[in-house]
Amino acid sequence: MSNSDSSTTKTNGDQFARKGMSNGHASGMGHATVEIQDGKTVVMDDGRKPPLAIVLKFVDVKHTVAIESRFSWSAKRPFQFKRQSAMEKEILHGITGSVMPGEVLAIMGPSGSGKTTFLNLMGGRALRGMSGNITYNDIKYNKALKRRMGFVTQDDVLFPNLTVRETLMYAALLRLPNSLTRSQKIKRAEDAIIELGLERCRDTVIGGPFLRGISGGERKRVSIGHEILTDPSLLFLDEPTSGLDSTTALRIIQVIKNIAQAGRTVLTTIHQPSSRLFYMFDKLILLSEGHPVYFGKANGAMDYYASIGLKPLIAMNPADFLLDIASGNVNDVSIPQELDKSALPNGNDEAIQPPAKDVREYLVNTFNQELAPQERAKLFALESTREELKLAISEKRLWSITWTQQFSILFIRGLKERRHEFLSWLRFVQCIAISLIVGCLWWRSKIQTEAQLSDQAGLVFFIAIFWGMFPLFTAIFTFPLERAMLAKERASDLYRLSAYFMARTLGDLPLDLVMPCIFILIVYFMTNLRVTAAAFFLTTLTVFLDVVTSQGLGFLIGAVMMDVKKATTLASIVMLAFMLTAGFFVQHIPVWMKWLKYVSFNYYVYKLLIKVQYSDGEVYDCGTGCQSVGTSPSFHGIQLGGGGMEAWALLLMVAIYRILAYIALRRMKTGG
Ligand SMILES: Nc1ncnc2c1ncn2[C@@H]1O[C@H](COP(=O)(O)OP(=O)(O)OP(=O)(O)O)[C@@H](O)[C@H]1O
């Protein structure tokens, strides 16, 4: 019945480290020797420090979630809606244990038993609602630990347009320290490709819902490669083998095992491993509806259950047996007397299977009496970690590469990811087609009469609105669409948010400025706008300002909402309000609504464009009805001349919108 792990009973990470860990080709990520001796850092062959040995302990870990509060309605009081108080549900009911460096802990249990929740808590994620104690080398979770952890989530979060090689190469460039040269980092990415058996799909794109790419198993392996490139001390994997054939699954678990043997602490949830896979795990935790029903050596599980009267009656994969009993299903399983008593005879001398609830209760109670006290005793017998290893856990880790390097890698990665978008001829066709339609509608426009002038002002207004709207509705998608990736990378502290923000907001700018250039070149001369070099360049500059301001507003709305639907709705309301107050439709806005005009960037852009077109002091021959332009200092309520104030207002908005978008992104929850 004993499931004790004698080699670890009196062991902690410190002692483990003293033993020295040879990884050789273990992780496959390098050919270095990992050794930590008596707290001295032994540098690996390629110049990196070996991963810090971390002992993970967890005592009485419980997790409670709030179940959404609802409004209730009763027919007796039809006009009264009652808010029901928020209900709480405990989904983990006190789990105790430890995992040592060098060990792989498998977390098993039926669907919904709390495996992912437990893994997340161990990885310092979604800690809200948790009680109990989780320590890493006897220190509680802190942000410095993020970069010592690798987390492979159930859903693979990868860029669909990057190839396998690019994905791993950018991960290596971002994650590995400057003690390695660029070519060494790329070599490590190549090693990962070979180790994970991804050679055949090296240059295939990852793919997504609308883009055919690598297979599901290959995606999973890329996700694992992405995380292990950094040599994390702690590796968490959520169902790394689901959907894979048994050979690929075995290969993955072998890689994971090698990673652990090189001194890492590894936790993985697993659904239905084959027997071969099952016996590769060092430790096992079996969950049943959030209760632990087994904790100990994986290869001791069957003996433990045999000792409490549960044995398969037919040849069975141990994992199938364990999942069956954890679900309360004891078909083809011998049952102990305690459960037999609860079964009622059906009159035909055939015992009825005990109810699943009784089986689960029996497992929980037996575990609490038999194994839980042993595990507790072992945990408390562990020597506490030496001070320097404790300190290493909370020491502020320096970024492995500089801000500028992070920025340039993220910039290039972003361009590669969106290369198809940039080079899409559709965007050019769209821009040229709209330009030609506008050019034809306002063909050789004149300003000799009031009506002609009004028509041309309509064109100027259209330019202001079009280049205020088009980039805005493109920019609002930026952050919501990258939310999952950003959350994942930020949770592992891959880069500074400022580097990502700058790279992402500047990445699209070159192309976003090419489009207005094409538009202006076509429209300006077709529609006969003021043909002087100064007017042409000032118009182009104003449109550029329009583009970057509206982009900033788009980034802000996207970052605040982080949801494409909500962001589009808000953007359309804001744009409509800004457009109506820009000065073309309504000139006499009620005083109490005037503030809207001053926050509308369309208002400043329209004013600037009007000033550029009509501020030359030239007296137009516009007949009797037209005294407005040239002869009058104002047009449509806009004071002609100057323009500095409008340009400054726009520049201020460019900065403010971006700063606010950055703050909104900072506040985004990463789960880390
Ligand atoms: N935020 C939440 N609010 C309400 N219930 C939750 C929440 N998070 C998890 N649960 C519930 O807690 C239980 C455990 O969920 P968890 O995802 O950890 O299970 P699992 O064992 O990983 O399942 P699977 O194998 O299907 O992925 C489930 O019943 C789930 O519905």
From TrEMBL:
Residue spans crossing the bilayer: 425-445, 457-481, 501-527, 533-557, 569-589, 647-665
Matches recorded under SMART domains: AAA (SM00382)
Membrane topology, as annotated: Multi-pass membrane protein
Domain ABC transporter: 56-314
Superkingdom classification of source: Eukaryota
Stretches with biased composition (Polar residues): 1-14
Pfam families membership: ABC2_membrane, ABC2_membrane_7, ABC_tran
UniProt keyword Transmembrane present: yes
Keywords recorded for this protein, A-Z: ATP-binding, Membrane, Nucleotide-binding, Transmembrane, Transmembrane helix, Transport
Chain spans, region Disordered: 1-29
InterPro entries on file: AAA+_ATPase, ABC2_TM, ABC_transporter-like_ATP-bd, ABCG_dom, ABCG_transporters, P-loop_NTPase
Gene3D superfamilies membership: P-loop containing nucleotide triphosphate hydrolases (3.40.50.300)
Subcellular location: Membrane
CDD domains attached to this UniProt entry: ABCG_EPDR
Protein name as it appears in the record: ABC transporter domain-containing protein
UniProt source species: Sphagnum troendelagicum
